[in-house]
Structures are given as structure tokens and as C-alpha cells.
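Problem 12. The chain below contains 149 residues. Write out its predicted structure in C-alpha cell notation.
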Amino acid sequence: MGIFKGETQPVKVVIDTNIIVDVALDREPFFTESDRILTLAEEGTIQGYISASTFSDLYYIIRRDKGRDWTLDFLRQLATFCQVATVDNSVISMALTSTFKDFEDAIQYSSAIVNQIDAIVTRNPRDFPVTAPRIVTPDRLIQELTNSP
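Solution.
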């Protein structure tokens, strides 16, 4: 079921903030692929993780358009099928010493490392100038999952 050859367990994937915002705000042309990523997590095809710090970012971004109640309902639903990737002192220390241009991306990456995540799914792979964990776009992840033997 995983995206790597020989995987028998669903791959652990950090879902980047932009993927979730695409779904919450119905952002085109990204909605369909981003929604498919969340569906794969909900179905258990991938084990979806969201960085703990991302929840506050999501609330701030989504609430402006959808309101407090809708946003909290959306986040509650998300938390039912995605795991929360810990953000602790080691994650913050790693992010503070990273060379990432964007601090939020540094936290996403550091959280993935500390939580032993296999991949980060994002629409902006250039924001993650690393080779591990694997950085994959939604369309690539979907393609690999649907074309696997």
C-alpha cells in the first residue's frame, strides 16, 4: 500500500498546510488533487500526519473566510483521521538552525524528521530543499499509489 517498493504498511506522510487550505477554501485548480490526498488519509491508504503547529496556522487562515465555527468543525474532522506530528523542543531547535527560507516549512520538515515520517506531500516541493524525507507533490503521490502493482 505504500509508495516505496516493499512497503507493507501505509506510508507516513506529513500533509503540508497548502494541501489542507486548498480543500477548506475550495481553491482551484488545486482542490481535486488536494481533496484526494485527504481522502487517501481518511481511507487509510496513507497515514496522514499534520504538524501540531499547523493547526493554529490553519485556524488563522481558514477562519477569515469560513468563520470560527465552520473552521473548528473542519479541524475536528481532520483530527479524526490524521495523526498529529509532535512539535517539541527538538523540532523547534532543528527548525531554528535550518537553512529553510520559510520558518513554517522548517517546522514541517523538522517535525517530519523527529516523528520519523516517510514523506511530505506539498504543492511547493521547492520550499523543501532536502532529499529525506521524500518530498512529493499531490499528483505524484496519487499517481504512485494508483499505478502500484
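Discussion. The two ends are 9 Å apart (CA to CA). Students who got a different answer should revisit the alignment rule from Section 12.3.
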